[in-house]
Design a protein that fits this description.
The protein is α+β, with helices and mostly antiparallel strands and 87 residues long. 40% of the residues lie in helices and 32% in strands.
Length: 87
């Protein structure tokens, strides 16, 4: 199933996974890749690295520059913006 809203999973102090669903599908992978492209074009302050995977997008950030909640807020805004444009 593709989630209506992604789940943010903490991976220690410097990383998190944005989980978009619990299946493997092209549609799910395209959502992940679209967010990855957006992040690379407009990286939020403190973003170190992104790692697109099959069901998730791995995010590495610098906790001395930004906080987890700030990264999640920025990601949520980007996802909602993409969703509103795609209908």
């Amino acid at each position: 199933m593709i989630y209506h809203r992604p789940i943010f999973r903490t991976l220690g102090d410097t990383a998190l996974n944005v989980e978009f669903g619990d299946e493997t599908s092209i549609a799910l992978n395209f959502r992940i890749l679209a967010l990855d492209i957006t992040l690379r074009a407009h990286p939020p302050k403190g973003l170190v690295e992104t790692n697109p995977q099959v069901r998730t997008l791995g995010i590495v950030f610098n906790p001395l520059v930004t906080k987890r909640d700030k990264i999640i807020g920025t990601l949520t805004e980007m996802i909602e913006s993409r969703n509103s444009r795609s209908g």
